[in-house]
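ok new one. same drill as before - structure tokens go in, u give me an amino acid for every spot. 156 of them this time. try not to just spam alanines like last time pls lmao
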């Protein structure tokens, strides 16, 4: 007899729903860059030795960039600094065409939310306990009764 089938947990639903990080596949890019610069750096170490700093810097950026949400507010961490924004100062979230989401404060500051993109909006809404609303995951309105949100056609 075999064990019952259990579906794997997809990467998009980590156990800590309040922590948003840069995609860990970025470390594969670092490994490829290391392999790409290995020969030139070993051939000309004096002239090209500085190339070793590129994968180290990129690794530092990937490891440090994240966004965490909790009851106190939003905690943003970048490669050079960390900042916390209480919920009272959060005005909203912008999703630019390219790059990470941006947190807008009541002082109209725009802060990068590392690791958060548009496809993270449902998870962001759950992690913020509804403080950041997911307009696409809203419950059906009063004129609809079906679970897919389409209007009723039975006349009731």
């Amino acid at each position: 007899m075999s064990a019952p089938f259990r579906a794997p947990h997809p990467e998009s639903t980590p156990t800590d729903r309040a922590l948003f990080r840069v995609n860990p596949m970025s470390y594969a890019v670092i490994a490829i860059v290391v392999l790409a610069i290995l020969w030139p750096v070993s051939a000309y170490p004096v002239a090209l030795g500085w190339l070793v700093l590129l994968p180290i810097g990129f690794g530092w950026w990937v490891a440090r960039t994240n966004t965490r949400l909790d009851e106190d507010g939003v905690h943003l961490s970048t490669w050079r600094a960390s900042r916390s924004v209480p919920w009272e100062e959060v005005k909203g979230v912008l999703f630019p065409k390219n790059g990470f989401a941006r947190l807008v404060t009541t002082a109209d500051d725009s802060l990068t939310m590392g690791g958060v993109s548009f496809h993270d909006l449902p998870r962001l809404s759950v992690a913020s306990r509804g403080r950041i609303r997911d307009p696409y995951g809203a419950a059906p309105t009063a004129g609809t009764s079906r679970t897919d949100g389409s209007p009723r056609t039975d006349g009731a």
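Residues 73 and 88 are 8 Å apart (CA to CA). and btw The chain has one domain: 19-131.
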